[in-house]
Amino acid sequence: GFDYKRDLDDVLASFTPTGNFFVVRGRFDWKKLESFAKQSGGSCYDKLCHMPGSVPARRISFLPLADGVMGLAVSTEDLAASQLLHPGTQRPIGVPSQPLWLSIPGSALNRTASNIPGAAFFTQAMTGVDEVILTIGANGPNFAARLEAQCRTSQDAANVTGQLKAFTSVFKTAMEREKKKPDPKDLSSVLTAGQFRQSDRMVYGEWTLQKSFLDNLAGM
């Protein structure tokens, strides 16, 4: 009974070594969701439901946190969603104005990049980085993906900027060698158009995204 295009308002997700945790705001038919969990081989107790995922090590659990707010976890533990009822150690995050954003501590870059299309491209360059913020938002008739990387020193920032520019140049050269025409729906074409600059310990990057690229990405 849940249609994300109609019923979903906001998602806050945290990807950790012990599992992926989500706080979701929207409109939920809890009775239908509980019935679905039970029909899928799971069970519910005191509003907390759990069910098997697509592989044995992936267990799905969920519960209401407030009116119109769901806590959901994908973990090896059946009751992992119950952790969302208890506050833990918080990492201070400056929330960007763009509707889609991702904050990644430097220590988790390689692990997180495996879940993001094209992210391996820039994580190789991210040495000496304390935090990376990626955002996607409207930019005129198109969209823009922006990168802000806070480095430990200005020299680290210069190195990261140089590496990102070098990787972009490699993509451009490869496309030219293969005589491949730019395609706004293709990730390689998007990456070749990246622009980067440095300001002291900060590195900034920007890529233009057309709606056709996002539609193609959502359909993967």
Number of continuous helical runs: 7
Number of strands: 11
Mean pLDDT: 87
Radius of gyration in whole Å, from Cα?
A: 20 Å
Structure description:
There is one protein chain. This protein has 220 residues and is an alpha+beta fold. 28% of the residues lie in helices and 36% in strands. It has a 6-stranded antiparallel beta sheet with strand order 1-2-6-5-4-3. A hairpin with a 2-residue loop joins strand 8 and strand 9 (142-151).
Give the SSE layout.
Blueprint: H1 4-7, E1 8-16, E2 19-26, H2 30-39, E3 43-45, E4 48-52, E5 59-66, E6 69-75, E7 100-105, H3 109-113, H4 120-123, E8 129-139, E9 142-151, H5 154-177, H6 187-192, E10 195-199, E11 202-209, H7 211-218
Antiparallel strand pairs: 1-2, 2-6, 3-4, 4-5, 5-6, 7-8, 8-9, 9-11, 10-11
Key attributes of the depicted protein:
220 residues, alpha+beta, six-stranded antiparallel sheet, 36% strand, globular
Brief summary:
This protein has about 220 residues and is of the alpha+beta class.
